[in-house]
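Hi everyone, sorry if this is the wrong subforum. Our group has a chain we'd like a structural model of before ordering constructs, and none of us has done structure prediction before. Sequence below.
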Amino acid sequence: MSETSLTDISNDQHAVRRQKLAEMRAGGFDPFRAHVTPTHFSEEAKALYVEEQDNTVTVTVAGRLITFRVQGGSSFVKIQDQQGPIQLYFRRDVLGEERYTVFKKSLDLGDIIGVTGTLFKTKTGEITVRVDAFTLVSKALRPLPEKWSGLTDSEQIYRQRYLDLIVNTESRHRLITRSKIVSHIRRFLEDRQFLEVETPVLQAIAGGAAARPFQTHHNTLGVDFVLRISLELYLKRMLVGGYDRVFEIGRNFRNEGVSRRHNPEFTMLEVYQAYSDYRGMMTMVQDLLRSLCQNVLGVSQIKHAASGEMIDFGGTWREVKYKDLIIEKTGDAAWFSRTKDEKIAGVQKLGLYADPKWEDYELTNEIFGKLIEPTLIQPTFVTHLPKELCPLAKITLDDPSTIDVFELIIGGMEVAPAYSEQNDPDVQRAMFEAQAGAEQQKIDHDFLLALEHGMPPAGGMGIGIDRLCILLTGAESIRDVILYPQLRPGS
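Answer:
Right subforum, don't worry. Here is the predicted structure as C-alpha cells:
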C-alpha cells in the first residue's frame, strides 16, 4: 500500500472519529469530561482471580483499546495499561441494548475506557473481566499505527515515542525496566546510608570532565553560564561539607557528537564515599550490578546483543592493569619507554590512524579505545590508567605515571570509572595546570579553595545510566533506552 493511500485512510478515520465525538457531545456526553477510578492495574487485577470461582471478584480497570473486534451479542476486546493488556468481555444481555449499541458504534481502536466487572477464566484459560459497566474517558481522534507494520521507521519511533510505547511491547518493557533500574539504584545506595543530593545544572565553569559544554546566558545576573558536563566537583564539595556518603542521579549535557552510545543529554549516577578508595568502589559496583541483575532482571547472566556471548555477573570479575593490556596488544614490552615517533609507528602498524599532534598518552589510548576495549565482553576492571587521562584522581605511589583508578568494561564499553579521589589541594592544582591536549579543562578555583578547607580521603564512581540500560536490556542504541532522544526539529 502506498504512503499516499495510508495517509488518505488516516484522514478518513480522523474525520469519522471527529463525527462520532460531535454526535456524543450533541447527545449530552463529552468523553473528555468523564472520569473513572481504577481499583487495580491489569496484572494486579488478574492476580485476584480465584480458580473455579468465576464472577466472584469485582474490579475496575482502565486503559487503551488495543484489540477491538465486535461480534453479534457478545464481544471480546483488550485494553492496555501500564502493566500490560487485559481482556474484557462485553455482552448485550448484561449491558442492555442501549449501552451495548454505544459500545459497538461509538468506540474505536485507541480509545481509552474504564470498565467495572467480575473476573472469570475463558475456555482457553485467559483471565477476563466480564463487563457490567463501562465509560469512555478519552476519544482517540487519530488511529493507531498497525501493530506489526505501522511503526517501523526509527525516526518516527523516536519522534512519536508515545505511539511506540502503545504498539511496541519490547520498547515499553525496555523503558519500564530502565525506570526499575534507576529506582533500585536509589534503594541500594540509601540502604547503605548514602544521601541523595542535587547540584547545579547551570554552572560558571564546565568542570569535572573534558567536554564541550552548551552555553547560555542569565538575563537577570547578566552573566554567561554553561550546562554542566559532570556532577563531580559539586559533589566533592559536599564531602568537604561533612556529607560522608552522597550520590546524585542527574542530567549532564555535552555539546558533542551523536552516536549509538552518545546523546548530548544523558543521565549519570555519581557516588562518593569518604574514607574509601577505588577498591572500595570496586566492591560496591560488583554488589550493585549483581543486585540489579538479581532483583530487576531475575538473572545472573545476560546475552551480549552484538556478539551473542553470555555475560556472567555472578562469576569472578577480571582485574588487569592498563599497561599490561597495551603491552599485550602491541607485543612490545618496552612500549611505555618508546619515543613519540616510535609510538606513532606502532599505532600505524596496528592499522590505526595516528595524528602527529597527539600526545604520547593519546597515541596509547587510541590503541586501548579501538583495539582493546571493544574485546572486553566479560566484566573487567582495567586499573591504573595514565595520569593524563584524569587530573582528579590520586597518583599511584609506586608508579607516578599512573593513577589509582579503574574503568569497568562490560560488553565492550566503559560502564563505570572510579577513582581514589585527589584530596591534596596543591597536587590537585598542579594536575589541573599540567593538563594538555583534548583533556584540558578550565580550572575551578572555588573547588580548589574548598579542598584547602580539607576533604577526607574518598572513593568516587560514575555510572552512565543510559549505557548501563543498553547493557542490561540488550538494546542496540542509546536512543532505545532514552524516552526522548535529541533529534533535529521535525515538521
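For your construct planning: The CA atoms of residues 121 and 127 lie 4 Å apart. The domain at 166-317+378-480 is CATH 3.30.930.10 (BirA Bifunctional Protein; domain 2).
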